[in-house]
Amino acid sequence: MTDNDLDTVPWYRQFWPWFLIALPASAVVAGLTTLGLAIHDRDGLVVDDYYKEGLAINRVLDRDHEAKQLGVYAEGQFDKHTDRLVLRIGARKPLPVEAIRLRLMHPTRANMDVNVPLHYDPSARRYTAQVHDLAKGDWYVQLEPTRGNWRLLGRLQIPGSGHLELGYPPPSHAG
User: Fold this and answer.
1) Digits of tens for pLDDT over the chain (175 positions)?
2) Which fold does the domain 71-173 belong to in CATH?
């Protein structure tokens, strides 16, 4: 085979030109895919105004401290078959019956967070709520009155036992 025979094969039928074209082409495809993901999915972990959030942390810690001072606790059960949450809330001293907010927060996807209205049942002295379409995973739970002077934090595993315990142990659990 002579040099003239090699020159008669067109370039697009040879291996090396396609190999050299494939390397930068794959980088372009990967870059466009990454750009598409970045545009489509908002990063829920990044706070727009981190300085203002940093200044507000003391007020948040004050609410945690207030819950500890009051001895506020909550125990409950989430029934995954009926999507019903039942909570009993108490403290060292009786708390006034007031509107309570329950927030279920997904650890990584802020758009999946759920604010659940709690309804007080005076005959059973408990709060109930319907929680629909809760995805599987580990959820952060925040419980606070609408006045916002205290708050309780916890976690709920879906699927799991459904048992929820927030705050500081009630007097019957103190050891």
Assistant:
1) 555 555 688 988 999 999 999 999 999 999 999 999 888 876 665 556 666 666 666 667 888 888 888 888 888 888 878 888 888 888 887 777 677 888 888 888 878 888 888 888 888 788 888 887 777 888 888 888 887 788 888 888 877 777 888 876 655 544 4
2) Immunoglobulin-like (2.60.40)
Among candidate residues 159, 133, 129, 157, the one with its CA nearest the CA of residue 143: 129
Cα dist. 35→22, 31, 140, 167 in Å? 20, 6, 30, 42
pTM of the full structure: 0.62
**Segments making up each domain of the chain, as ranges:** 71-173
Specify which residues 164 forms β-bridges with.
76
